[in-house]
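Students often ask why we bother encoding 3D structure as a string. The short answer is that it lets us treat folding as translation between two languages. Here is a chain of 1206 residues written in the first language.
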Amino acid sequence: MRRSCFLALFVLCASLVSADWHDALWLGRGDVWRARFPVTVTNPSDAALDGQPVALTVGDQPDQAPLAGARAEALRVSNSQGRQLLYALWAPGLDTLITTGAVPVGAVLSLPAVCGPATSTTYHVYFDNAHAWGLADFFDKRPVTDLNGDFERGVGDMPTGWQQKMSDAAHRLAWSTDAPFSGARCLKAETASGAAPTWFGFSRSDFTVVPGARCTVRIRVRGENVSGTAGWYVHVGDEQNPQLLNRVVKTGDGTFGWTETQITFTVPEGATRMTTGSVLHGSGTAWYDAFTFATDRPAPTPTARVGAAERLSLTELGADAPWPAALRCRPHWLGRITAPFRPHRRAAERLWRHRLPIRVVNLRDAPATNLLAVADLASAARGIVAPEFRLTFDGQAVEACRLGDRLLFSCSPDARSIMTYYLYVADTGKRPETRAAVASALGSDIPSDQILAAGSDTTDAAAFAKLLAGPVNRVKNPGFEEGADQPDGWSRSGEGKGVRFSVESPGGFGKHHARMTVDKSVAASWRGWQQSVPVKAGHTYLYGAWLACEGLEGSALLHAHLRTAQGQVASGGFLSAGAGISGTAAWTPMFGTATVPSDASQLQIHLTMDARGTLKHDGVFLAECLNAATGDPETPAMGHGELAVWPVDPIVKVFHETLPPTQRAAGAIALARNEEEALQLALRAGRNIADLEIAVDPPKRRDGRTLDAFTIGWVGYVPIDHPTAYYNLTTPAWQLKHPTRGGSSDGWSGWWPDPIRPTARGSLRANQTQAVWLSFKTTADTAPGTYAGSVRLLEAGKRLVRRVPFTVTVWDVELPAASSCAAIYDIRLSAHWSADGSTAAQQRERLMRVMADKRVSPDEVGAAPVFTRDAQGRITADFTAYDRAAQLYFDELKFRFSYTPNFFYLFGWEHPPKKVMGEAPYEGEHPYAATDRTRLRAAYKETYQACLRLYWEHVKAKGWADRLVLYISDEPFLTKKPIIDQMKALCDMIHEVDPKIPIYCSTWRHCPDWNGYLDVWGVGHYGCFPVEEMRARRAAGDRIWFTTDGQMCTDTPFCAVERLLPHYCFQFGAEAYEFWGVSWLTYDPWQFGWHRYIHQSSTPGESYHVRYPNGDGYLLYPGGPVGVQGPVTTVRLEAARDGIEDYEYLKLLQRHAGNPQADALLKEFAALVEIPNAGGRFSTRILPDPSSLAALRLRAGALLEQLTAK
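And here it is in the second language, the structure alphabet:
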């Protein structure tokens, strides 16, 4: 019996650890930290320390960190509560951060000191984990022993301790020798003639300050031909608001000699840090020297003492077990030779694709028995839609139970041991089962933060029944088989008139289940069954049960309490699991995990509800569990001389563990005229090939014509630390931030293909698959027909190791040069894009041209009109820069839509409208909590409308108005009345200028109050905005766009949503889709495939740190880090282009409506997309069979060629 599993389970449990050895540290990659040493930090002052730096030198002397030679990537720091701390490891001169390689003697380890007044605290520094990945975030407060205020010390072109901010080719910074005030060096800033003013400069942010202190900064500045502001700034604040105090002091303008500038200030209450630096906001050249900082209240100086290092001695069992012959993916060589002559050969011979090591760790001094190991299956399936699993230990099969995306199995690890199991994975090739419609819920009030409320897999109830009745389950009478109406081991509460408790048949796992019925007339109250089970502090337990209901008014889920020995609820002791059921629902598993706090000794299962109707329970479970960490996948080794090459549909991502199919198809692609199409090839060798060149013989028709417009690229692989989701934290700045729950996607942690590096040369590692990308492009003049070419693989550029033939068919069908469906991606630039020295304007134009080539569009023109108000209050506008940019955008690059300039954007989330030219939107104080949001200030309306009227009349005169949309608000909190009211007032203000101005808002969901106010609705394509309401809005004259934030992620096995979004647009009447970024970066994406936690506020007065989904906001990479000039495309952007071209095929088929074949094909295309759906982060659910889309496209091209010929 198999049942749908509606379950989201993330096991937050560690290995069985010795004392306080914190082994579940971030990015351990399934391995164990084998060494650590304690650091005792002492605060000698009468003030608490909250992240001040304390330093240790690396060496073998007393109170030095014993890290010499250790892998820097494996360093982790934890306090006594197991919270991981940021750290920084500096080169001996404190001028370079060490993040990789062996730690040198003399390096400086900087830690955040967090302890109360006149107290000490102990940290542990962990090291020696051979598989651990390096961190992306480090402690940003350098132990300041030397301000380097004379700027004499430095490395390369950077003075030690100082950073360059926002420099580019037009805003240049240098560590200069140009006539310094003293010594040999100074700082220099220079702005090119005509460049726009920016806040670029040198800065330093590692100053710790004390609230109430009186501080003085002094700096010498000289200038030459300065226009604007040349001087110095000071920002003082905390982690949430770094500018509680913001002071900029102008030294002078024109040409002037060395002049001292002084900034004196009092540190605001709550401030802890200072950032200071140079200013040249304008034009000219400025130099800076002789910086000093003084304070009357120096920050407390903590001390650190180092204890003796500890090392683990572990017995390792089961590691490196050979592949059992029966599970090998490829048969023996003799079997391969004789296979064609054996009609009844076993299908299982090539079934098992890869295996993952699963490590069970017991660091305690005693063996453990009857524990439940929990392993992640999402990382095992790796995009296989219908996988099969087999668990082994030492080559022997191990019984296991699949529960949603987790694998459960019983284990009894020896003392101080690591047991390595192997999970073998097969692709059954079965077609995916049709799923019931899925539901989504909000992860927060931000509409794009949607989570799937349905599970992804099935659960084997028979396997679970064995666990249920086995020794791992601590629950007595878990299936209610013993006892009658009062089952053994269970008590009940809330009995009374209209409430009926009973044990009924049949059961979910046996003969019986527990049943509770509450009549509609009964007052709401908590009632149900309970059982208390002894648990141990510090241990982790998996608890759960199966629930079903009939006519349930309200919702029910699984509850549990952690209680003290006295029966009180322990700290953090209220627990729950599951998404909840209501109405009438079949048996649904709900499971969660809990780590027992120090004051708890019982876990009390509560099979309770406060709803009315019938609630049923069965299969109650509680087991001590431990995380069975999965390692990287392994595949059988190829023969040393073997090399496999095979084509892969570009919508499917090729992983290092991807193996060649049993039957390899020929390399063949087809495309229309005015189209681009990729041939993705997978390469895999049995040996390392350090230098492999991809040479393409241009495909040629029989008459000699060739296709010469093609590019060659090697697909790059980037690391992903954790499956995609939105992750919010409110932890202190000094704590390492990382996800603490499971993801909301079909991805996993590991190496993911994404960028396509434009090069013909690369390398192969033995038994690792590598994707290469050949992209062919046609024009309107390309001759139709079949072209034959070949790919030559050349080792070291000379020796031919393989020739691979392929064909390109060009259909006699022409796609329009201008795309019919708009795909809008915001351009957002950061320092990563200007690292090659280009200006923001240069990078923006590069990005725009690449986007035009890929048939996608930027969000806006890229320049703004300049509005000014004279002394009489008259507002005028300068459109010079805007017109120049708009001519490039609309006239040359032919982009279909643009948002109006950001000046006219008004608010986001739950915030009130922004000020406009200094005018506040409402009377009173921000955030206007008690203000009537329907009543805008007259001066605010007049100012905004005057600017909008000038702009609108101008763009109408230029002929651009019908291509513009006014983006009023992003993701407004549409359930909040103040937001509903202010939106209506703002829309009225805009439409008073001209009712024809189209107002766009990315609402995601429908807000009936805004009908008649919004003109263009940005709706979620996964079902949060009902299809019927889309039709109603369109019938009312509104337009529909799909808004898609958080959908196009790196870690999805298929490029499904990128390819399918135009299909959704076609089928559901949306004229465009928009995605919030093509270039938004928080790290170097070549180095880290995930995002930094950024500080964000979606509600006035509230803030948090949020990490956006992996790859969210960018589909292009800066080329600088890999030596490429300009942006680098990705497999995701190429899929987006393919989708836009698919839309044209659909439009062409639509022109032949009434033709039976065309109508039938359109119907089949329509079946690919449905609303509701699982969302873009679940590619294997929205497109479980990628080959179906490819097959439909081939049929469409061939049919259109026939119909065109007729």
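Translate back mentally: The CA atoms of residues 386 and 432 lie 6 Å apart. Keep this in mind for the problem set.
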